[in-house]
Write a structure and sequence with these properties.
The complex is a heterodimer of chains A (293) and B (347).
Chain A: H1 2-40, H2 47-64, H3 69-92, H4 100-122, E1 135-138, E2 141-144, H5 145-167, H6 169-179, H7 181-186, H8 191-213, H9 223-238, H10 243-263, H11 266-283
Antiparallel strand pairs in A: 1-2
Helix pairs in contact in A: 1-5, 1-8, 1-9, 1-10, 2-3, 2-4, 2-8, 2-9, 3-8, 5-6, 5-8, 6-8, 9-10, 9-11, 10-11
Chain B: H1 7-22, H2 34-57, H3 66-84, H4 88-112, H5 117-137, H6 139-142, H7 159-165, H8 171-194, H9 196-206, H10 208-213, H11 218-244, H12 249-252, H13 255-268, H14 275-294, H15 301-316, H16 320-346
Helix pairs in contact in B: 2-8, 2-11, 2-13, 2-14, 3-4, 3-5, 3-11, 4-11, 13-14, 13-15, 13-16, 14-15
The chains are: A mainly alpha (293), B mainly alpha (347).
């Protein structure tokens, strides 16, 4: 028993490291979703579909138009930011005062729309960049360069977001509005503008995540379904709107998925992650760092 | 609604019932009704599933977990038939019991610990995903994303065998099974509409504390409607599996199906009895028309339109098509009566 454990150790470490690296991208995604929820008080069920569009944008820009990777990523971030703005401007703002569940369902409709539009436009084939990034090894533990890069860039992105929210006037206004929606309007803040900026930043984070995910995964119209649900679960587990909680939850769940996938199949990893989520919801409905209201 | 049916509405109902019952016999021995009948069966089965979702949805309990119940009903029945040789007559009740148990295990803590709104939607969403991922993970038995086919009977099977297996070579039989199921669904809807539970649940939807303070047992009321809704949905899933003889995780479980259920109900109208049915008619007729009109080249066109419609509905017509029409009619009749009343008063 113990000997097999020792034999498994490099592979288990590999699973742990991969979980950690994947957690970086998930944390980035949940940060974007949490930002939007914290400020606009809306959950975008279609968030992962924006990522999917971003992945397609990367694919087209890089393989068809041969745009260098960095510029393609920048364009993707800008494009997804614009998409985020449009989602808010066209869909959320008309129903800002409707029951919250209607807003959830409207973005659910958008999920349908984006997924099917991608099927319609680009078919259901899996597409990938065809990159062969080197695999790195250290003491029998192997992990891909793409994942390490994704993790690093995701961390940089998160630090950037932190600085934006804490060191700029606009960021301060965003944080203030997430603390009290009504008072800030009385203080002379144009909350519409803040919502626009927040949605665009949220979309931009989806774009950044997309340009990192496309390095590791094939893109197809349903790719959003493979990490969309886990992203919502992470946000709720961390406490909706609580960015630090989401950050921690992202790593916990990605490790659960990764280790579960190591001992059984990857699907079981997801099953464990969702079951843990449901159980935690029952024990701590406000999330792991949440205060009970 | 509680006043009983007026004479005119009664007559319309009876005529509709006669048409629905006579429909399969209208082909006079030719087979030209086979395709419309197939569409009708689909509409009836899905209407039943949508009706069962609306039982919860109308009280603000937005579940994104009905894909899970649908999938458990469908896969439970089919797996028991293939691997245990258990007739659907036993397999369906067994699956329904399992679904009721899951609904209680998920529902009780949710309601006891006050997981409402977004949080409830997302917990049930997780349930949807759990079931879908389990189906994928146990692909050695369920076939994973390739789908699953219940063992078909040999084509010369005797009638008792067909009944035991709940597989019928004639579409008409399924049409009647689906028709009865749909009617029972509507009946359950009316029973809920006229029950005390409805008032309790409406109060809970308005304000849980206030409801509890006037003596409504919040957890129990919510749990009752959830289990009812879940079991009905699972039955729809089982029926769908028996009819189509093919199920796949993407057609009976997961977030996509859960959202499809929500969409159809919202499109038709959550608060009226026939709203979910109208939703089923719209979605199925739309997708079939598009499939015939533009063929399989444009895969995804129908759901693209669904998506646009869902967004537009929620923004402009949250009460749904049928709800909107009924509201418009009642506003007109009220306007007419009030004008008549004014005229009478002036005289």
């Amino acid at each position: 028993m113990f000997e097999t454990f020792i034999d498994d150790l490099p592979f288990l470490t590999e699973a742990l490291v991969n979980g950690l690296l994947f957690g970086g991208v998930l944390a980035l995604l949940s940060l974007g979703l949490n930002l939007i929820f914290g400020v606009v008080d809306v959950i975008w069920i279609c968030y992962a579909e924006i990522v999917m569009f971003g992945m397609y944008a990367m694919y087209w820009l890089h393989t068809i138009y041969a745009v260098p990777m960095v510029f393609a990523a920048l364009a993707t971030i800008v494009g997804c930011g614009l998409m985020g703005f449009l989602v808010h401007y066209l869909i959320i703002s008309p129903i800002l005062n409707a029951p919250p569940i209607n807003q959830l369902l409207a973005t659910g409709g958008l999920l349908f729309f984006l997924q099917s539009l991608a099927t319609l436009l680009w078919g259901i084939e899996f597409k990938n960049l065809g990159l062969r990034l080197p695999v790195m090894g250290w003491m029998g533990v192997y992990f891909s360069y793409a994942r390490l890069l994704a993790f690093g860039v995701a961390l940089v992105g998160m630090i950037g977001l932190y600085l934006f929210l804490n060191r700029t006037f606009l960021g301060t206004a965003i944080r203030a509005i997430s603390q009290d929606r009504e008072i800030m309007v009385l203080m002379g803040v144009d909350n519409r503008k803040i919502y626009w900026v927040t949605s665009a930043v949220g979309g931009g984070l989806a774009g950044l995540a997309a340009s990192l995910l496309v390095l590791q995964y094939d893109v197809h119209p349903f790719v959003g379904l493979s990490f969309g649900p886990i992203t919502f679960v992470i946000c709720v587990l961390g406490g909706l709107g609580n960015m630090l909680g989401g950050f921690i939850a992202a790593f916990i769940l990605s490790e659960v998925v990764s280790i579960g996938g190591f001992y059984a199949e990857l699907e079981w990893g997801y099953v464990f992650a969702f079951v843990i989520f449901v159980i935690v919801m029952f024990i701590r409905p406000g999330g792991i760092l949440g205060r009970r209201a | 609604m509680g006043l009983g049916l007026s004479n005119r509405r009664h007559r319309v109902g009876v005529i509709a019932a006669i048409i629905l019952i006579a429909l399969p016999f209208l082909d006079f021995g030719f087979d030209w009704l086979a395709y419309p009948l197939h569409i009708m069966v689909l509409i009836l089965i899905w209407s039943f599933a949508y009706t069962s979702w609306s039982l919860m949805g109308r009280f603000g309990l937005v579940s994104l977990g009905h894909g899970a119940f649908l999938g458990m009903g469908a896969y439970g029945t089919a797996l028991l038939w293939n691997y245990a040789g258990l007739s659907p007559w036993l397999g369906v009740p067994a699956s329904l019991c399992l679904v009721a148990l899951v609904a209680i295990v998920i529902g009780y803590p949710c309601f006891r610990f006050r997981i409402v709104g977004y949080y409830f939607a997302l917990v049930t969403l997780a349930l949807s995903e759990i079931v879908r991922q389990i189906i994928m993970a146990t692909r050695d038995y369920t076939g994973g994303s390739l789908g699953f086919t219940p063992h078909p009977l040999p084509s010369d099977a005797s009638l008792p065998d067909q009944i035991v297996a709940l597989q019928f070579p004639h579409r008409e039989v399924f049409y009647f099974i689906a028709l009865v199921t749909w009617a029972v669904g509507l009946y359950i809807w009316y029973r809920v509409e006229r029950s005390m539970d409805r008032y309790a649940l409406e109060t809970i939807a308005e304000d849980e504390d206030a409801a509890a303070s006037v003596g409504v047992w919040v957890t129990r009321e919510k749990l009752k409607i959830t289990v009812l809704s879940a079991v009905m949905t699972a039955f729809a899933g089982a029926l769908f599996a028996q009819y189509q003889m093919f199920i796949a995780p993407d057609t009976v479980s997961g977030i996509f199906i859960s959202l499809q259920i929500v969409f159809a109900v919202v499109a038709g109208g959550v608060f009226v009895a026939l709203g979910p049915t109208v939703g089923a008619v719209i979605t199925i007729v739309l997708s079939e028309t598009l499939r015939i009109a533009v063929g399989v080249k444009m895969v995804g066109l129908d759901t693209t339109l669904y998506g646009v419609m869902l967004v537009l509905f929620i923004i402009f017509l949250p009460q749904g098509i049928l709800g909107g029409i009924l509201e418009w009619i009642s506003r007109r009749t009220r306007a007419v009566t009030s004008q008549a009343g004014k005229a009478a008063a002036a005289d």
